[in-house]
């Protein structure tokens, strides 16, 4: 009554095939049961026996025992085979095939099996639910045949539920399911080390990372990757909108490397594992975890990329501002008060930027190097075209801007001298 293919199948696929097959088998059993009752009636009419007589009742009881034994033997044989399918035996026999194949995956922030093993109220039937359905189908054999000892009234379900062998086999099946479930849960629980990266918000974590280092910055001076914090930074047009009070690049490096180590651990997860009769496909979980860790890494890298792009934009804006200021200073006479004030403002901002220029550009070189060191296919650069990638050689752009500043600054100094 229970059939399986010689390969692993999805539980739902098995249940679909089983239900169709079982429906046909139960129909045949019911039809044969009706033939038995018809034969009993014909026998009664032929021998013209009294239905209430002791001899007829003894005959009914005699046949009834045959039917009970037949039904119980059929159910026990099927339950025994079912138990062999789900037996938890770590020593597999040659030619062993797992019966069911399930996935371990990430559902929102929960690592779970699909379908689940335990009893579930979800739309997707759990493995226990499927096994329970198979057992019920087998016991349903007893309700397809009308009772002989009562003249067709009632069925044999009570006898089957009270049958010692059937109860023994059901107990064995349940014990094997319990052991399998225990092993599966232990396997799933080993992924708890990744819980932090599943349940926590990487953006919130990153903000806390920046915040936790903010106070310590006041006590440190000129650490690698850190630019000395001065009041003039807030007025420096090259740093407009940027966050310069950040942890050292050593700490950035440490955190990113930590995340990359976690990602390597994820890659080491076996694509599939077998637990007696269950094969677990771990690829959906691996892909989800890798994607999740990439999100964490990209929070760090995208912050650096955004800072770099913002700095380059600020430099280009300031370059344009200086050029206009220099041209204005050359066109107008110094006695024009309003124009003179504008030129003096340009000169003041030039002086501010020029005084911090070496430190600022060195800071950005380290930031670009840090970003380039860890950027790869996991970074958002994967999604941009080749033309855009060619434009994002940030270090070359930075050096080109620095060189252009040198030329423009000389022009500003000439204007200043003229004034």
Key terms for this structure?
single chain, 419 residues, mainly alpha, 4-stranded mixed β-sheet, 4 strands, rod-shaped
Description:
By secondary structure, this protein is mostly helical. It has twelve helices and four strands. Strands 2-1-4-3 form a four-stranded mixed β-sheet. It is rod-shaped, with a radius of gyration of 40 Å. The termini are far apart.
Strand content: 5-15%
Number of helices: 12
The separation of the N and C termini measures 103 Å
Class inferred from helices and paired strands: mainly alpha
The low-confidence runs, each spanning 5 or more residues with pLDDT under 50, are 227-232, 378-388
Largest sheet, spatial ordering of strands: 2-1-4-3
Helical content band: 55-70%
Question: What summary fits the major beta sheet?
Answer: 4 strands, mixed
Count the E strands: 4
Mean pLDDT: 83
Order of helices and strands: HHEEHHHHHHEEHHHH
Computed Rg = 40 Å
- The shape is rod-shaped
Would you summarize the structure shown here?
This protein is mainly α. It has helices at residues 11-47, 54-86, 127-139, 157-162, 164-189, 195-199, 202-217, 249-267, 283-331, 337-374, 386-391, 394-418, and strands spanning 100-107, 110-114, 272-275, 278-281.
């Amino acid at each position: 009554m229970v059939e399986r293919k010689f390969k692993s199948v999805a539980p739902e696929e098995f249940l679909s095939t089983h239900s169709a097959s079982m429906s046909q088998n139960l129909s045949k059993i019911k039809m044969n049961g009706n033939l038995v009752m018809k034969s009993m009636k014909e026998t009664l009419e032929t021998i013209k026996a009294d239905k209430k007589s002791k001899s007829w009742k003894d005959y009914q009881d005699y046949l009834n025992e045959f039917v009970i034994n037949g039904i119980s033997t059929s159910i026990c044989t099927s339950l025994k085979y079912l138990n062999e399918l789900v037996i938890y035996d770590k020593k597999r026999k040659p030619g062993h095939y797992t019966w069911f194949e399930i996935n371990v995956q990430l559902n929102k922030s929960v690592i779970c099996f699909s379908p689940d093993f335990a009893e579930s109220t979800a739309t997707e039937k759990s493995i226990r639910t499927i096994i329970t359905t198979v057992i019920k189908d087998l016991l349903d054999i007893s309700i397809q045949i009308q009772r002989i000892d009562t003249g067709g009234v009632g069925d044999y379900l009570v006898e089957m539920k009270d049958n010692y062998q059937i109860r023994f086999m059901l107990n064995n099946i349940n014990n094997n399911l319990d052991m399998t479930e225990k092993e599966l849960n232990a396997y799933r629980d080993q992924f708890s080390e990744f819980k932090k990266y599943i349940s926590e918000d990487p953006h919130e974590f990153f903000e806390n990372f920046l915040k936790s280092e903010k106070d310590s910055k006041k006590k440190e001076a000129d650490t690698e990757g850190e630019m000395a914090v001065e009041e003039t930074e807030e007025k420096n047009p090259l740093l407009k909108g940027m966050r310069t009070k950040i942890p050292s690049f050593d700490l950035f490096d440490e955190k990113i490397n930590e995340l990359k180590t976690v990602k390597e651990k994820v890659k080491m997860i076996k694509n599939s594992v077998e637990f007696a009769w269950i094969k677990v496909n771990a690829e959906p979980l691996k892909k989800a975890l890798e994607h999740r860790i990439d999100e964490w890494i990209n929070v760090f890298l995208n912050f650096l990329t955004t800072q770099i792009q913002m700095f380059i934009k600020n430099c280009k804006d300031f370059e344009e501002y200086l050029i206009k200021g220099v041209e204005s200073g050359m066109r107008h006479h110094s006695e024009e008060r309003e124009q003179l004030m504008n030129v003096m403002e340009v000169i003041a901002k030039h002086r501010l930027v020029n005084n911090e220029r070496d430190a600022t550009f060195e800071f950005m070189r380290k930031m670009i190097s840090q970003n380039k060191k860890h950027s790869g296919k996991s970074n958002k650069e994967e999604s941009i075209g080749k033309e855009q990638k060619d434009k994002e050689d940030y270090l070359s752009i930075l050096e080109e801007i620095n060189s252009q500043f040198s030329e423009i600054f000389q022009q500003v100094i000439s204007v200043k001298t003229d004034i």
